[in-house]
Design a protein that fits this description.
The protein is of the alpha+beta class. The chain has 5 helices and 11 strands.
């Protein structure tokens, strides 16, 4: 009898946990439906959240599953927003927390929101018809194309090449990937000086995925940034989830080609060692 009673208690507890999880997800989805203005390619719109950062609108992905996520340490309000906080341990805005009562949700940066031409006019029209569906007035924020320097400065708190410790690039060889990283200051300076001048183009441009290589760079504060990929075919950078940047300069292209060659060499040497 005791065994049956214990089993029933466990079932009730599990049902309660499932109910609370579904309730929290639906609750956050309702907040997001009243907050977000457009989808991002490859991201479920239900998990998007808009945050005002200066004159820009930053788009974040919400989740309760970030590694080492402790919502209680996020207690510094983010200016211009309600119930959004950053951690005093970090000098960046890559991860934030949305807090509503006892519920906390992690937010991870995706990209800035930009719109021009017909897209911007449609947003203005929608806002005029029903402003309650927006978290901002489109004529009071900056929705123009942005430079990657804006992301480095506003999100990652990077203001010079000295803030970058190293960067690397992946290479795919015979369906296997390898990675090469450099801490050479000349390479880092070349990389930084080139990417800060990159400006977003029309996010609806559809470039092929051929020749894409993932770029990772590590900052002084320990943050690892992996939101860029590089196309050797088009000589351009992509930001995660669709933002496309203007064509890079020849000096950076030569650097990326040299690093990719080194990454391929690393893979070949590792393959020989295994054989």
């Amino acid at each position: 009898m005791k065994r049956v009673f214990s089993f029933v208690i466990i079932i009730i507890m599990l049902a309660g946990l499932i109910f609370m999880r579904n309730y929290n997800i639906e609750y956050m989805n309702e907040l997001i439906r009243n907050n977000i203005q457009r989808p991002i390619a490859g991201v479920d719109a239900r998990y998007l959240f808009s945050v005002r950062l200066g004159d820009r609108i930053a788009e974040y992905n919400w989740s309760q599953d970030f590694p080492d996520f402790d919502p209680l340490e996020y207690n510094i309000p983010v200016e211009g927003n309600e119930n959004i906080f950053r951690s005093p341990k970090n000098d960046d805005l890559f991860r934030l927390v949305y807090r509503d009562g006892y519920k906390s949700y992690g937010l991870e940066f995706l990209s800035f929101f930009s719109a021009t031409g017909e897209k911007l006019e449609n947003i203005r029209k929608s806002y005029a018809e029903d402003p309650s569906g927006f978290s901002y007035d489109p004529d009071k924020v900056d929705l123009s194309p942005y430079e990657y320097a804006d992301i480095l400065r506003l999100i990652y708190n990077v203001h010079s090449a000295e803030d970058i410790v190293s960067f690397g690039i992946s290479s795919v060889y015979n369906k296997r990937s390898s990675f090469y990283e450099t801490a050479d200051r000349n390479d880092i300076n070349t990389f930084y000086n080139a990417v800060i001048s990159m400006k977003t183009e029309d996010n609806d441009i559809n470039y092929g995925s051929s020749g894409k290589h993932y770029v990772t760079f590590t900052l002084k504060n320990g943050l690892i940034i992996d939101d860029l990929s590089y196309s050797t075919r088009d000589n351009i950078f992509f930001q995660r989830y669709g933002a496309v940047y203007s064509e890079t300069d020849q000096k950076l292209n030569l650097l990326m080609d040299r690093l990719l060659e080194s990454a391929s060499s690393v893979h070949i040497e590792n393959k020989k060692a295994v054989e």
